[in-house]
Amino acid sequence: MSADKSKAGIQQLKHVIVLMMENRSFDHMLGALHAMNPAIDGITGQESNPDTTGAVVPVLPKAEFQSQLDPDPDHHFPAVDLQIYGGQTSPDRQANMQGFVKSYFNQQHNVSHSQKILYYFTPDKLPVLTTLAKEFAVFNRWFSSIPGPTLCNRAFAHYGTSFGNVSMELFYWNKIYKSIYERLFAAKRSVKLFYFDQASSTLEVVNLLKNQPDLFGTFDDFLHACDSNKLPEYSFIEPNYTDHDAIDGSGEAIASDQHPDHDVRAGEQFIATVYNKIRQNPALWRSTALLIVYDEHGGIFDHVPPPSCPPDGFVAQPKETGTPEPFHFDRLGVRVPAILVSPWVQKGLVINDVFEHASIPATITDFFIGPYDARSPREKTANTFLDHVTLDTMRADGDCPVFAID
Question: For the whole model, what pTM was predicted?
Answer without folding.
Answer: 0.95
